[in-house]
């Protein structure tokens, strides 16, 4: 959860506060309090939970989503819904005279309006998700596991790749795929010269460069430290090497500007690749590629 987002939602928080104050003042301003014995506590529990949960939903929305049309519509819809829930909840504590009886009549109308707004918001959310999915292509395949995302590069970590390779081995037995592991040369030296902060930036920017050069169906994950792992479905070894070479060229020509004085530093990647074999398994396949990479690096 990102609590700093609350500072960016001041208008929505004011609207929420407005609905809350209006519900309290209408309910308690127009009625008379019931005696303790007159209160139906089971209803209080049921309707209080609905009101409380609408607060919780609004809170989660505000600390999870940046400002924008979808967030506003979701929060506004929930505010209307909460307004009905509060009127319903508060009237368990109040008697209304005839002049205020309209409150009971209209209390369900805001919920209906809220549902309409939320339906619109959910449709927009769906559209937004389609756009985000397009951005996630090459970072994500078949499955979403946000706990497995590496926070420096925003790529999935090695365990996610293991699952995806396993899936390929189980479901695509008749078509070979390739696995490539890439390593940044002399990254330790870079870290020591320019610091870990710039090192993190290099990892992030190299990840972006690799992504740009991948096809839609490929998947990139962070393997460990300065190693990246690529899954290239329906791709033989020659094609995989060709693709990896193109990525290395792209990285070689990219100049990283250091934070302290803007010096240009160029980076080189080393890679190894292998393709899946009959009756292959995840760990042996990854180990083969890692061993090859170590040999290339030693050479
Ligand atoms: N900035 C930063 N550095 C990291 C991170 N993870 C690992 N490293 C560093 O990556 C470096 C990896 O060092 P090595 O495995 O010796 O790799 P290298 O210096 O590239 O050596 P060669 O692979 O032989 O070229 C170490 O300095 C680690 O501290 C990270 O998340 N951020």
TrEMBL record:
Pfam families: GGDEF
MF annotations from Gene Ontology: diguanylate cyclase activity
Catalytic reactions on record: 2 GTP = 3',3'-c-di-GMP + 2 diphosphate
Keywords: Membrane, Transmembrane, Transmembrane helix
Residue ranges occupied by any GGDEF domain in the UniProt entry: 175-299
Keyword Protease: no
Name of the top EC class for this enzyme: transferase
Membrane-spanning segments: 12-33, 39-63, 70-87, 99-123
Entry EC number(s): 2.7.7.65
Name the UniProt record assigns to this protein: diguanylate cyclase
